[in-house]
């Protein structure tokens, strides 16, 4: 079992997201991440999906998605160079002045933005790779007693060169 990435171009219509997520639910496939947004063409949306599955299941998923009328194109991103980022908001609550200073140091080290500061809290905002986000969350859990994390799911695009981040 490993993470598999798929990008879909789909018709931008009511119910398409429900139909695609329903396909995953109906077959008991686990969705780790799903993001959707319109493209340069208002009639088309692009989905980035991460499913945790084995090789056979992944092939079944791709075949079933290709059969759907609303799906314009299915792209397997698992073995191609891509640029991928995920958005994260991390709220560190019940902070002392020393905790806030530590938040600022961590933000600087991870190249993330301090989006908001309260009397006893700090809000970090970032777009990083899945691995770096996991590292940041683990560090925040180690250093602070009260954190709240909101992850937005990854988006990915095929690389236009051979190098990617």
UniProtKB/TrEMBL annotation:
Domain ACT, first and last residues per copy: 5-79
E.C. no: 2.2.1.6
Family matches, as InterPro entries: Acetalactate_synth_ssu, Acetolactate_synth/TF_NikR_C, Acetolactate_synth_ssu_C, ACT-like_dom_sf, ACT_dom, AHAS_ACT, AHAS_small-like_ACT
Enzyme category, top tier: transferase
Gene Ontology terms for molecular function: acetolactate synthase activity; acetolactate synthase regulator activity
Pfam families membership: ACT_AHAS_ss, ALS_ss_C
GO biological process, one term: isoleucine biosynthetic process
GO-annotated cellular components: cytosol
Pathway where it operates: Amino-acid biosynthesis; L-isoleucine biosynthesis; L-isoleucine from 2-oxobutanoate: step 1/4; Amino-acid biosynthesis; L-valine biosynthesis; L-valine from pyruvate: step 1/4
Keyword S-adenosyl-L-methionine: no
Keywords tagged on the record: Amino-acid biosynthesis, Branched-chain amino acid biosynthesis, Transferase
Reaction(s) this enzyme catalyzes, per UniProt: 2 pyruvate + H(+) = (2S)-2-acetolactate + CO2
Claim: Plastid is one of the keywords in the record: no
Described purpose of this protein according to its UniProt entry: Catalyzes the conversion of 2 pyruvate molecules into acetolactate in the first common step of the biosynthetic pathway of the branched-amino acids such as leucine, isoleucine, and valine.
Subunit structure: Dimer of large and small chains.
Similarity comment: Belongs to the acetolactate synthase small subunit family.
PANTHER family given in the database record: ACETOLACTATE SYNTHASE SMALL SUBUNIT, ACETOLACTATE SYNTHASE SMALL SUBUNIT 1, CHLOROPLASTIC
Protein name: Acetolactate synthase small subunit
């Amino acid at each position: 079992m490993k993470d598999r990435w798929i990008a879909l171009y789909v018709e931008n219509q009511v119910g398409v997201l429900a139909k695609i997520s329903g396909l995953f639910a109906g077959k008991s496939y686990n969705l780790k991440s799903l993001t959707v947004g319109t493209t340069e063409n208002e009639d088309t949306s692009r989905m980035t999906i991460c499913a945790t599955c084995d090789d056979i299941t992944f092939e079944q998923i791709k075949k079933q998605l290709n059969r759907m009328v609303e799906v314009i194109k299915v792209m397997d991103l698992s073995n191609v160079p891509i640029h991928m980022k995920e958005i994260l908001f991390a709220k560190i609550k019940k902070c002392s002045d020393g905790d806030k200073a530590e938040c600022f140091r961590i933000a600087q080290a991870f190249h993330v933005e301090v989006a908001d500061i309260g009397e006893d809290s700090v809000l970090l905002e970032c777009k990083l790779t899945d691995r770096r986000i996991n590292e940041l969350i683990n560090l925040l859990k180690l250093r602070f007693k009260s954190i709240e994390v909101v992850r937005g799911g990854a988006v990915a695009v095929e690389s236009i060169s051979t190098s990617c981040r």
